[in-house]
Write a structure and sequence with these properties.
The protein contains 8 helices and 14 strands. The strands form 4 sheets. Strands 3, 4, 5, 6 and 7 form a 5-stranded antiparallel beta sheet that branches. With 277 residues, it is an alpha+beta fold. The chain is elongated and about 105 Å long. The N and C termini lie far apart (70 Å). Helix 4 packs parallel to helix 6. Strand 4 and strand 5 form a beta hairpin. The model has no long low-confidence stretch (mean pLDDT 88). 17% of the residues lie in helices and 36% in strands. It folds into 3 domains: 92 residues, no CATH class; 89 residues, no CATH class; 74 residues, no CATH class.
């Protein structure tokens, strides 16, 4: 016969009162429960297996009232030893009540998506500025020589100057005549050793939690033009591209983050990044 102390069998697990379940803003459910066992049971392989990460709540606890939470699985367990012959195991369960992704590339209502907008500013070469891009190619070549230091720009005289090996300088009137309008502004900036400009970087991230991995339809949209779900900004003449994502698994629950980036003033090319590739 199994050993008995105060009616507690060394081959059984005893759920304690006070089991709780909560849900966070990402849609993940977290359960907390306490279970008592005899100290002699801690080395019992059958008992040990019941507390493995990923074990279903209902495999550990057959209480009919907990069948509603059958999707919860163990994510963490710790032991608390008493002075007597008992060990109390504090067990945390996590899970999601359903899939977040249907068969297509949409999203289910159960996913409780959360969206965030991230805006930063980075530096780009002046040669990528929209006002530079539209300049005549010959003018861009001259400005490129100014960027490299092969040419100099005399701001006061408005002239292109070419340094010589002997230290002298030659004024290039023909090239100087090309520097007009916006080219003067760029030449002046370059002469002041400014070769970059600030450009915004805007991204939109969707976070969901559920029981499904990313679908093939979702994966196939990576690095393609696509409109994010939610309510992202829609600046004129720009478009969005699915740029990356992550998926973390805890038990049978997947937390997925998908990130879209907004194009610059020139939209992403439909030829390069459209659906038909």
């Amino acid at each position: 016969m199994p050993a008995i102390q105060h009616g507690i069998l060394s081959t059984e697990i005893y759920p304690q009162p006070g089991f709780t379940v909560s849900q966070d803003d990402k849609g993940t459910y977290t359960g907390q429960g306490v279970y008592a066992i005899r100290k002699a049971a801690i080395n019992n392989p059958t008992i040990q297996e019941k507390f493995n990460i990923g074990t279903s709540l209902t495999d550990l606890d057959d209480d009919p009232d907990k069948q509603l939470w059958s999707f919860l699985t163990i994510s963490q367990a710790s032991r608390a030893y008493t002075e007597g012959d008992l060990i109390f195991l504090n067990v945390q369960f996590t899970g999601s009540s359903g899939p977040q992704f249907p068969e297509d590339d949409g999203i289910s209502e159960a996913a409780l998506p959360r969206y965030s907008l991230d805006m930063t500013s980075g530096e780009l070469p002046l040669s990528q500025h929209p006002k530079w891009v539209v300049l005549d190619n010959t003018v861009k070549t001259v400005l490129g020589y100014l960027m490299s230091g092969a040419y100099l720009y005399d701001i006061g005289a408005g002239k292109i100057v070419i340094p010589q090996e002997d230290g002298s300088r030659i004024v290039e009137d023909t090239l100087s005549a090309l520097i007009t309008g916006d080219a003067i502004e760029f030449a002046t900036l370059i002469s002041g050793e400014q070769t970059t400009y600030h450009s915004p970087s805007i991204s939109w991230t969707e976070t969901t939690t559920g029981t499904e991995k990313l679908t093939n339809a979702q994966l196939n949209k990576l690095s393609k033009i696509s409109t994010p779900r939610g309510n992202p900004p829609e600046p004129n003449e720009r478009n969005w591209m699915l740029d990356g994502g992550t998926q973390d698994q805890v038990g049978e629950t997947y937390q997925t983050r998908l990130t879209w980036i907004l194009s610059g003033r020139e939209p992403f090319s439909e030829f390069l990044y459209g659906d038909e590739i």
